[in-house]
Amino acid sequence: MEYYGWAGTILRVDLTKGKIRRQPLPKDLALNFIGGRGFNSKILYDEVDPNVDAFSPENKLIFGTGPCTGTLVPCSGRWTVTAKSPSTEAFGDANAGGHWGAEMKWAGYDCIVFEGAAKEPVYLWIDDDHVELRDASHLWGLDTWETTDAIRKEHGDLEIKVACIGPAGENLIIPACVISDYTRGAGKCGMGAVMGSKRLKAIAIRGTKGVRVAHPEEFVDAVEEGIEILRTGDQWWFENFSKYGTPIFVMMFQTLGCLPTYNWREGVFEGAKELSGETLLDKYVKKKRACHACVFHCSGYYVVEEGPYAGAMGEGIEYEATGGFGSKLGNADLASTCAAKTLCDKMGIDLINCTDTVGWAMECYEKGILTSKETDGLDMSWGNAEAILEAIRRMAYREGRFGELLAMGSYKASKVVGKGAERYSITIKGQQMGLVDPRVMWAWGLGFGTSTRGGDHLRTQPAGEYMFTPEEMEKYIGTAKASDRYGWEGKGMLVAWYQNIRAVHDSLEMCKYFFRGEPRLYVEFPPKVLTALTGFKWTYDHILRCGERIYNVEKAFNVKVGLGRKDDYLPERFYKEPYTKGPYKGAVMPKENYDKALDEYYRARGWDLKTSNPTRARLEELGLKYIADELEKMGRLGKE
Amino acid sequence: MDVGQQVEDLESLIKSEGLEGLIGETHRLILSSLEKGNKTATEVLREIEGKHYITSYWQVVRALLQLKRIRCVREVGRRRTETTTAGIEPIYAITANGRHLLKTLEKRRSRSRS
Lengths: 640, 114
Description:
- By secondary structure, chain A is an alpha+beta fold.
- Chain A contains 27 helices and 17 strands.
- Chain B is of the alpha+beta class.
- In chain B, strand 1 (about 75-80) and strand 2 (about 90-95) form a beta hairpin.
- Chain B has 5 helices and 2 strands; from the N terminus they run H-H-H-H-E-E-H.
- The interface of A and B includes residues 251, 278 and 470 of A.
């Protein structure tokens, strides 16, 4: 079948046998799972036994693009990589921006599915229809920047786009990620380590085919209308996010009292101004860059020119770097956060997992649970920037006892250390959380708890909780009460809706920041643009249902692994340890209220309140009868 | 002519801006606050926080920008602020349109209460 929007081909690479084959994209998959994350999740569920070891050849590593990828659709430069996760031992995926996804699409592929494992290091070289596995022994050991340069030099083409792993992925450290375009990290769930376990160093692509559009004039109209709604309807966001990028969140979240500080003990940081987007722009950002088709250009190209971190440079320094290596670690030295971000990119380490793991180590050090004996002499006091950088390096190379410990990520490391260290691992389902403190942002908390890939902010990213007006909340979610960020009522409905629509955004492979605070964009833009792009008639209801279907498939994978309601709770710190300072001093999220929100959430999803398992009725409504049958056989189907 | 001095066809403005069904109690609270004097979003929030589920600075910013689009408020200056990374905030004043809308919203509120 000839497609518009989609490329129409799934590429299958058997790394064990060294064989490559092409599979036509099934129409049912396209129309019910949209693309990118949706395709990957369905393939993972259908083809991977949830109980295999994440590092075994039986696990699959799936890269996906969406129907919008590589087109004019604003902010459509994203791609998703999916596998069973070594950090959560359950469903895992990660998502990145840049230009690599567009190149993959232009080469003619919706998905690339890696199966098995190579005996020796290899990389995949794609030049449109020409696809081959090449020896990567000369690349093994190089960092991600060196790898990208070496591949481009080998082929004599600077336009080649490379996604690869660094030493972190090769060494199978849990916080390892996949890096594309030098600085774009597909960070969550240890996908870099899975890639390393398959001895797959890189995927290098040159694509020149473009994307076919069903109705070009309507398509351009839909794109322009979307940009206009963003520009006028979400003016504050459009102007400020374009200027500062995500580092704007340092002061936004400081204002809201949810800036994670000292490993999530507090929600405001005394050095926040030094870490702010404004300071970053003044001191280190030299120019603005953009992912494919981005209308914001939020990405700052930074250079540290003097001081102890002179020479640190890179692109896309985000809030998760300035806040993560900053307030979360009690460190007000912005230049050092730039240097840490550069080092993580080169090593191929996820910033969130890294900053949380280092934060955990710092708090354990403060409490005497880790001493200089366990840290191999490293002084892990709060704010010690030199120690932070050295810890990252040791983590990547598993150097010494401390490096081995950090390489496990905070969750697994805390189990090994014991002595109460688990209390300071701020993780959900073994996964570190994005930088929003839930004590004063309850929808964010519920989103973290119920995310299908562990404690993650992007599965839900309920920006409407603090950006929609109560009138918008009433119209689009059904209750204005969800606008109260300290209340539980309406949060179940809000989070379920957000998770479904975010699954759509991830499957279109669009950046969530396009949809931040303007509800009209969530509702009006996807059906209009998809209809013009693909030639099929899409409605908002159908699209939202696709999002819900994707979420249920991921949930079912986790149910098979054995996860349930007990795993949907936050770390105890957020229920029991109030802030001791700042405008929200005393704030906690009472557990009984979290429970009420969780009940409301399961009701909105049509899942069993006791176990959280999906019910047959809801699965069948979503066209997932075969999953209901499988869960029933395992005795894990939810009760109606 | 200063648009702030003339009452316009608010219904048409609201429709053309895609804000049908989205102007309500939040906007009434903000306009009431501005009726007492020109203010920044931070100052408005300080006055109305906790009422009608309003708990965030950005809810107020968003509602103010909606009111600006239908010419119910206008910017009359800027002030340094500690609230945002931008370091500066617009000061808003209510317009004739805004006073008209405020009356309409107050009537609607009394009707729904009676």
